[in-house]
């Protein structure tokens, strides 16, 4: 075959493939936008069906996996929701955009923990989590599950392990400190909230938590030498009483464009 003709055919094939990929991405976004709109209207059966189409067009669309899980959650199908949240986390690990979308990942982790905690038969899911590698994120997830299950001892143990595994993770330090403050463990809360504040002085919840325990946020807190490492409790954890309800997170919006969609959606 003539080399120039071969080259032309190769270029044409490449354009067709590229065009096909572009069409698939376009279809994925159309289905995703429609599914998110249905989700916002409370049409969860319709949103689940539409988001399934979006995922078929683009399996790496982690936003659609998350809101498909939320749709299942509202349809009282917790196991299907848990499966979608887990898939969402896996997809994010393998995505350039997803691997850096920390805010969205925290939202997925929280949804997964809440569904496991509220599932009547959660022993199998807990056992699966306990067998996972002892990473900061896995301990963080376990801490959330135990917290929402009203098991403060196991929650605090896993928050502390998460903080030790990654002392630089602001989200872990913040949530650990606020939970200690909620339980009335002021001394330990003081250390964790100071550590979180040293990492992010602009977080209003951390600053409010410090004020509630009698610490005035300010530049001097960042100079403390003991803010680098989390506090390791000595001896058994003190008994605590749980009062009130677990704080809930406000609605968030997926980031515009890319895998995270463009619609404003509620959780």
Describe the protein's architecture and organization:
- This protein is mainly α.
- Helix 9 (170-182) runs parallel beside helix 11 (204-212) and helix 10 runs antiparallel to helix 11.
- It is globular and about 55 Å long.
- Helix content is 63%, strand content 0%.
- The protein has two domains: 20-131, Serine Threonine Protein Phosphatase 5, Tetratricopeptide repeat, CATH 1.25.40; 146-242.
- It is built from eleven helices and no strands.
- The longest helix has 38 residues, at 3-40.
- It has helices at residues 3-40, 44-57, 62-74, 78-93, 102-118, 123-130, 136-148, 152-165, 170-182, 186-199, 204-212.
Briefly characterize the structure.
This protein has 267 residues and is mostly helical.
Sequence-ordered SSE layout with sheet pairings:
Layout: H1 3-40, H2 44-57, H3 62-74, H4 78-93, H5 102-118, H6 123-130, H7 136-148, H8 152-165, H9 170-182, H10 186-199, H11 204-212
Helix pairs in contact: 1-2, 1-3, 2-3, 3-4, 4-5, 5-7, 7-8, 8-9, 9-10, 9-11, 10-11
């Amino acid at each position: 075959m003539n080399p120039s003709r071969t080259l032309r055919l190769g270029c044409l094939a490449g354009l067709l493939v590229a065009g096909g990929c572009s069409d698939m991405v376009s279809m994925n976004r159309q289905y995703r936008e429609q599914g998110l709109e249905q989700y916002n209207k409370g049409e969860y059966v319709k949103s689940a069906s539409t988001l399934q189409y979006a995922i078929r067009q683009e399996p790496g669309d982690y936003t659609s996996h998350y809101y498909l899980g939320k749709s299942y959650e509202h349809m009282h199908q917790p196991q299907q929701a848990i499966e979608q949240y887990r898939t969402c986390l896996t997809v994010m690990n393998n995505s350039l955009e997803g691997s850096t979308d920390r805010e969205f990942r925290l939202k997925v982790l929280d949804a997964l923990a809440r569904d496991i905690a509220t599932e009547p038969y959660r022993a199998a899911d807990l056992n699966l989590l306990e067998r996972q590698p002892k990473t900061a994120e896995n301990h963080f997830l376990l801490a959330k599950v135990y917290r929402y299950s009203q098991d403060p001892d196991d929650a605090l143990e896993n928050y502390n392990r998460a903080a030790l595994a990654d002392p630089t993770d602001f989200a872990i330090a913040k949530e650990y400190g606020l939970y200690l403050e909620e339980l009335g463990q002021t001394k330990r809360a003081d250390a964790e909230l100071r550590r979180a504040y040293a990492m992010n002085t602009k977080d209003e919840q951390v600053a409010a938590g410090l004020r509630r325990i009698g610490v005035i946020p300010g530049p001097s807190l960042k100079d403390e030498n003991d803010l680098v490492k989390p506090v390791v409790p000595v001896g058994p954890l003190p008994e605590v009483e749980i009062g009130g309800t677990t704080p809930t997170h406000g609605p968030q919006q997926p980031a515009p464009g890319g895998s995270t969609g463009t619609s404003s959606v509620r959780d």
